[in-house]
Amino acid sequence: KNEVEQSPQNLTAQEGEFITINCSYSVGISALHWLQQHPGGGIVSLFMLSSGKKKHGRLIATINIQEKHSSLHITASHPRDSAVYICAVNTDKLIFGTGTRLQVFP
Amino acid sequence: DGGITQSPKYLFRKEGQNVTLSCEQNLNHDAMYWYRQDPGQGLRLIYYSQIVNDFQKGDIAEGYSVSREKKESFPLTVTSAQKNPTAFYLCASSISSDRGLDSPLHFGNGTRLTVT
Fold first, then answer.
1. Considering CB atoms only, which of A43, A90, A93 is closest to B107?
2. Closest by Cβ to B41, choosing from A90, A93, A98
3. Residue B84 φ/ψ, nearest 5 degrees
4. Cα separation of A77 and A19, whole Å?
5. What is the pLDDT of residues B80-91, one digit of tens each?
6. 3-class secondary structure, A81
């Protein structure tokens, strides 16, 4: 079993829909990262959080340390949000999930 | 603008040849990392460097080598000893020297290596 599990693996949505991507982990962590990988392959760091909730524009990330779970929400989704979203956790090293591929159609 | 530059974007090599992937950063970051990405798998750490002239093996270092002669540069050589070199390679950096544990990672756009 992977130490970091993301769900769903693939997600399609219509423009304007509310999106939720989940990340569960089985190890003790100091922080969790959400990353966005564009179709060309480049990766952008979206959030790093160790508790509670962070918001940036239409993106919201939450984490529940006790339940070992984090969610990434996208409000009012747009086709430009189409990307692979990757969760990574800090233990004594970074452990990456396999990603959630999101496609938003107009 | 500051960032990480990886070159080339696509690289093709014949089996048995060594190949070097370039990674340059102008963010003044101490720590630099090389990751490998394969379909259906999470990123895996190949090598990392916390400071100039020092580097450490990651989880899948066999068949790879690196150098860190300058703070800005962390080239990765894929040697002929690497059994499955075809993959997408990502370079990253962070302010913290603690393997990115307490600071965001900045990534390059990657190099897609194909070995035939």
1. A43
2. A98
3. -130, 75
4. 7
5. 888 899 999 999
6. helix
